[in-house]
Amino acid sequence: MMATVTDIDPASARALAESLRQVYTAVAESIGADNAASPLITKVTEHLGCPLSDVVVVEERYRLYEHAALQTATDLYLDRHSPDARWFGIVGGERRWESVINMLLAAMRDGSRLLGRPDYGTAPVGPDATIEVVQLGLVATVAPDGTPVVLALSDREDYEPHSLLTVLATERGTATAVREEIDRLKRAHDPFRGQVLSFGFSEHRDNELLTFLPRPELAAEEVVLPEGRLETIEEHIVGVAELADRLTAAGQHLRRGLLLYGPPGTGKTHTTRYLIGRLREHTAVLITGPAMRRLDYAVALARRLQPSLVIIEDVDLIAEDRGHHETSPLLFSLLDAMDGIGGDADVTFVLTTNRVEALERALVQRPGRVDLAVEVPRPDAAARERLVRLYARGRQIDADTGKVVAATEGVTASFVKELLRRVIMIALRAGAPTLTDEHFDTALRAMAGDDQALTRALLGSQEGSREGASQGVVPTERKDTRTPARLSPPTC
Which one, of 164, 161, 157, lies nearest residue 208 by Cα? Predict the structure, then answer.
């Protein structure tokens, strides 16, 4: 009859357990010793001159969109300290979820990770440019003082995907020195500097996404504002940029805030595009919609990459996000960020809004965040004349533009732009070399029709009667008699 556990006395049971433990330990040590001699572990430990158990690990975590900058800095570091170094990789396991040191420990423990080739991917560094990046790889190099170290780059799929720099060394100070130099190189040679960047969200777990945009090319003649307003904006934004060094030496702050307000479609976004093109050396960071939730990241990026522009469109939508508060917490977060950037930072905030009344109280309660507010109204007759010729794009106009100007009273710049697009389409279909009264009349009739009311609203135009539509003339529309909301002067 076979003995059961209850038939064994406690002392014998303990002796048996100890024997089994010793057997397990001996087997594990034997396997570990064999695995420690594996090509992967040997490549790391022989370079460092110590067993894996004595290795010190220092890590630095970066946002996933910073991988290109991290790779650029790492490449510069290797060029400086070990230009002949070659990357190697790790094969096996759930690598996207593991740290490099855990992969190495698994390789020594059970041989489940093997020496292999590095994993590569691409990352954008401009609207039409990418670079190759190491998504998982290690490289044997040296610290600034010549001490051997191993660097590793990896992309991790934790709660929030990120890029990880890992430094393996025999001393913490050595690893920290390497990490700090790479971070300095990253800041000095960041490929994002001087770019136009748009913050958004990817479909993957709602993570932030950084998109590169081409820098707009706009001449001052293409920005149609009331007389003197573009000059005022340029003096405040561009003028400070041109005198940045001298202003700093004189003890003056560089941070500034511009608010562009007015009805939809009047040219606020167009004006911001002009500023982006005008300040060619500035990094521009655009924030819209849900990306406001990552405002702190965007502002930190703008500060790091200064001189920079932070452009937040339709900021009145932020003011509507009140929750249980009388005023918007998100709006006050923006104002706090503007204040916290520091007066010495060459960062310009440009805000646009269709409803300044939604912002005025908050701005008055936090004076000094916005130091210039400029209204961008519907174009007057002279401005509409300029817009007609601007959006004709050099095509000859053989029509009474005075009639067109009179017929489009109360419309927006967006309306005039769409009108000219339709006029040109009509002329192209007719094979006509010039834009004639007939072409304008046809387009005006179509846009004045009852079935185009929503189109007109989407183009930001005021609605009025339909008199004159049959003659191809957009009716004179009701004027908005409300007094536009204006900001009180900021308190110094």
Answer: 161
Per-residue pLDDT of 31-45, as tens digits, reads: 555 555 689 999 999
Q: Are 128 and 157 in contact (CB under 8 A)?
A: no
Residue 374 bridge partners (DSSP): 260
Helix (H) or strand (E) holding 141: strand 129-142
Q: Is the bond preceding residue 377 a cis peptide, omega within 30 degrees?
A: no
Q: CA-to-CA distance for 348 and 350, rounded, in angstroms?
A: 6
Q: Where in the chain is the domain with CATH 1.10.8.60?
A: 381-471
CATH architecture of 381-471: Orthogonal Bundle (1.10)
Span 267-313, pLDDT tens digits: 999 999 999 999 999 999 998 877 777 788 888 899 999 999 999 99
Residues of the chain with CATH 3.40.50.300: 209-375
Please give the backbone phi and psi of residue 98, each rounded to the nearest 5 degrees, phi first: -120, 150
Residue type, 252: Q
Q: Are 430 and 458 in contact (CB under 8 A)?
A: no
Residue 365 CA to its chain's centroid (Å): 29
d(CA 264, CA 268) in angstroms, rounded, equals 8
Paired with 179 in beta bridges are: none
Distance CA 21, CA 31 (A): 15
Give, in degrees to the nearest 5, the angle at Cα 17 between 12 and 23.
Answer: 125
Q: Which distant-in-sequence residues (6+ apart) come within 8 Å of 234 by Cβ?
A: 278
31-40, 199-208, 234-243, 327-336: least confident range = 199-208
Residue located via tokens 């007094």: 483
Tokens for 373? 């507010």
Residue 459 neighbours by CB distance under 10 Å: 20
Pairing status of strand 372-375 against strand 397-398: unpaired
- Span 209-375: which CATH code? 3.40.50.300
Task: State pTM to two decimals.
Answer: 0.78
DSSP state of 464: B
Residues whose CB falls within 8 Å of the CB of residue 332, separated by 6 or more in sequence, listed in order: 362, 366
